[in-house]
Design brief:
Order of helices and strands: EEEHHEEEHEHHEEEHHHHHHEHEHHE
CATH topology of the largest domain: Nucleotidyltransferase, domain 5
Number of helices: 14
CATH architecture of the largest domain: 2-Layer Sandwich
Strand order of the largest sheet: 3-2-1-4-7-13
Shape: globular
CATH class of the largest domain: Alpha Beta
Helix content: 40-55%
Structural class: alpha/beta
Largest sheet: 6 strands, mixed
Number of domains: 2
Strand content: 15-25%
Radius of gyration: 19 Å
Amino acid sequence: MNFHALGLMSGTSLDGLDICHAFFEKNEVGKWNFKILNAATFPYSEKWENKLRNAIYLSAEEIFELNSEYGFYLGQKVKEFIQKYSLENIDFIASHGHTVFHQPQKKFTVQIGDGRAIKLLTTIPVIYDFRSQDVLMGGNGAPLVPIGDELLFSEFDACLNIGGFSNISFKENGKRIAFDICPVNIVLNHFAKQLGKEYDENGNFARNGIINDKLLSTLNSIEYYHQNPPKSLGMEWVSEHILPELKNENPATILATFTEHAATQIAHIFNQYQIKKVLFTGGGTYNSHLVESIKNKTETEIIIQEKELIDFKEALIFAFMGVLRMRNDNNVLSSATGSSHDHCSGILV
């Protein structure tokens, strides 16, 4: 059985909407093979970036309105993508949506972008809301990509994604565990903008800044880093635990210090779990200063593959989660999220 699927991903770093068109096939020995056929990022306009960035402050009524509006936005971008690559016979669209709230301890997580609106514009079956069921089952609703790491990227000891947050997945005692390590681009981009750039290109601001050792020590001592997985992070956590610690420093020092902090936390996990070979993906992989800083703190072999995989692995895996949902196979691993058992998640319309 094979599938042509579209995966949609919008990350917390707000650099745009990723759409990945991939082909999936299960071979005769039961292994999944995939090929990325087309992929594109649709950068957010200033209007949309502001809407999504400030969604956390909206009233309930305004959130519902934005959920519909963003759903139609996603549908429109899918139509543009299909037209751009002259696609036919897409089996389904799997949409992550855009996370506004993530509070699993209160049994809710909110990813806006109504899948019904996407279907109305495209007339293609849509799978969306992959996280809520897991949260209701006592899980973190995150991370979800470990099912893809398990079934598509098993040749690596671990997979690390560096986006708004860094998250990792690997096998321990025969079970795949996964968790968010620390914030990365959600903080770095914020302070790079104060220096006139959308992001800290190659980590140049951080490379030339001065590390504040006292601030670094304070960041490294935050309670979250000493908790055992499963665990996950959200923007609310950053607002409460990270930004207040940074408020009295200049942006260049913050970028230098926070980059060192992220490198320290990531390398610590590699060393703690004795990870030998790890696949790096996500926008933070292009931050050469961050990657060099990690390499200096660990003997773990870091693998960086083609640009397509760096940029679109998460969208690819959401497409794959859609494949599993269409087959009624489990697509969420309880060992990664902390829910009561493995399950098949996603609303199909």
